[in-house]
Please model this.
Amino acid sequence: MSDEDADVELEARLREQEYFRPPSKFVGQANASDPAIHDEVGEFPEGFEAYAELLDWDEHWDETFDGSNPPFFEWFVGGKLNASYNCVDRHLGERKNQTALLWEGEDGEQENITYQDLYREVNEMAAALRDVGVEEDDVVTIHLPMVPALPVTMLACARIGAPHSVVFAGFSASALAERVDSADSDYVVTIDGYYRRGEFLEHVEKADTALEEADRDPQVLCWTRHDEVHDSADVSDEYTMVPELLEDHRRETVEPVSRDAEDPLFLMYTSGTTGKPKGCQHRTGGYLAYAAATSKHVLDIKPEDTYWCAADIGWITGHSYIVYGPLALGTTSVMYEGTPDYPHKSRMWEIAERYDVDIFHTSPTAVRMFMKWGEEHVEGYDFDFRHMTTVGEPIQPEAWLWYYKHIGDEDAVIVDTWWQTETGGHLITNLPALDDMKPGSAGKPAPGIEPALVDDEGEELEPAAGKAGNLIITRPWPGMLQTVYGNPERFIDTYWADFSDTDSDDWTDWNYKAGDGAVHAQDGYWRILGRLDDVMNVAGHRLGTMELESAVAEVEAVAEAAVAAREHTEKGEVPDVYVVLREGVEQSEEVREDIIEAVEDEIGAFARPANVHFVDDLPKTRSGKIMRRLLENISNDADLGDTTTLRDPSVPERIREQVQGD
Ligand code: PRX
Model:
């Protein structure tokens, strides 16, 4: 079957998917229950003022949107506010004794942090950061796992106007070093260790190695997972121990710094099509307003809810929908340190029952895993979600239906939220009380968001025609990234150049390129097909092919390498590595291990290749470009397709035989 036939068939199958109505008890209580919200927020740009009004401002903005210097758009210009004040202080009047964070350690330890506690902890940490020299606008790199120290440190940075750059704890020392250098960061915040599957991981070691590798020489602040350094961790004398530092700042308060709406709140590094990750820079006012409003309208969060987003704060989902959005709304959030199957496969449902969680947020990868484990691990746990989210990858209708039935008890809404690190918050997703759910489809655009599809030449496709195209967003929104840190050219090249008139100073000529393919179906629903560029999605983690390839190329035995995404029933995609070894080097288990180790060292264990194939040549065009698409077809048992443009058309067939057999 050709790609096109497959697409038509899938489209027909998805068209047949039934719609599911939100339960009336959900609709009756939903935050967004009036369809007029689409028209109101859609008034550009004033409609987004309602989002900013969810926040407390020190000074009101003068201008809602400034599009005079595209694509460097500005939001709520002239306004001043502090994100930590909005997420913490402003709740003290009404709910200081309400729990802000319900933290559960993997070992079963629990911590109940009220808004008053959070206020105290954030203030003390802000004072501690100042004490070691952190000033407004200094970038603080945070390399922490899912422990309360992470949101506390982020909010402490926000309080003193120091943008944070959180690096997912699973990233390796080299990845940490690269991000420290790239962000010109002079401070790293880490921890002695944390728990994974019952083991104490000595996390601080990554900071030790990163310091050796980085060009900069940042100061390191080290939290401890227990009251004291855990026996097994060896913490350098050069590091400042946070618990001791905090002793000097007990009960101290730090006045929140009034930040311009356009001052950066944080950087979040993400993979792109080059070997170097980009620092997506998010602004304070527009980002926080967008995260808060989408938390309210899409996630339906209310202060009295118990909300659990089972993502990691080290990725954008955790920034927007564990820390900033939910805390800005003053709700109670669950945070879990460990893995979902430790010590047993019902751990998630045990937690949901214990805290009586109302809203649950996870990824299709996790749903597929729960589905594989079987519903018997869910049965018998007494929890009742009213609302569930999926994010990060397309969800197959089968997995959606399982989630709906076995986790939601056919009684909860599901929102499939499409967005990206760059977009700050949801862009395509139904508002759960207003639109029916359609398994496998992200749904309609969020209020005020105008997506469109274009062909490769930039010609717009007819709306709702059921055809696939490049997804673009034609109008700015407050949550969008400001720029790529330190690299405005890369910002323009990556997101704008392809489908905008870059000579124009009229913002309406500029279109944001998402990098995803999508179909706009006849019913007006959007289905996301996945990345069109060399970016893959491994268990919801975004990984650049080039980043993986440069890691593999570090191995001395390797002459050339290419990485292809192989479809995987649970993880969505996994990396397959194809390598040509240097003359005279024999393929061996040792070289294979070196390659895997190089990826783990350069990026992290989560990026570990599924297969390493030793081949004698890579498929290349006559101009020498590696045709990764062919390798992808081989990895996925698909037809090779057209190979006539290759320098040596016999290469892919040889590789295919080697990988797939005859
Ligand atoms: O390909 C899309 C996929 O994840 C990419 C963004 O990855 P990241 O920046 O890591 O952010 C993930 C969490 C927001 C997108 O370009 N993606 C995200 N959400 C969905 C999705 N694909 C299909 N459906 C979704 N709901």
Summary: The mean pLDDT is 95.
